[in-house]
């Protein structure tokens, strides 16, 4: 996951341990560990943390080809 990768790359680039990064961002070590695994539930908080390390979170809406849409609808039973 690209979000998780940004936290890991920032930490490595700045030669920081998870503990040191948690102190910079004022979050727990458990939370940074989850972020680095790509586990998070609040996108607003993640956006703020990304901003704090020099990244901007953007969302895009893209068109999915009809063939893929049909597969997704079938898997989600949204026929």
Task: Give a quick rundown of the structure.
The protein has 79 residues and is mainly α.
Question: Could you explain how this protein is built, in words?
Answer:
- This protein has 79 residues and is an all-alpha fold.
- The chain has a single domain, classed as 434 Repressor (Amino-terminal Domain) (Orthogonal Bundle).
- It contains 5 helices and no strands.
- The chain has helices at residues 2-13, 18-25, 29-36, 43-52, 66-76.
- Helix 2 crosses helix 3.
- It starts with a helix and ends with a helix.
- The mean pLDDT is 89.
Number of helices: 5
Q: For the record, what CATH class applies?
A: Mainly Alpha
Beta-strand portion reads: under 5%
Characterize the largest beta sheet: strand count, sense, and whether it forms a barrel. Answer: none
How much helical structure, as a percent, in the residues? 55-70%
Radius of gyration: 17 Å
How many E strands?
A: 0
Number of self-contained structural domains: 1
Give the overall form: elongated
Structural class: mainly alpha
In CATH, the homologous superfamily goes by the name lambda repressor-like DNA-binding domains
**Helix-strand string:** HHHHH
Q: What fold name goes in the CATH topology slot?
A: 434 Repressor (Amino-terminal Domain)
How far apart lie the N and C ends?
29 Å
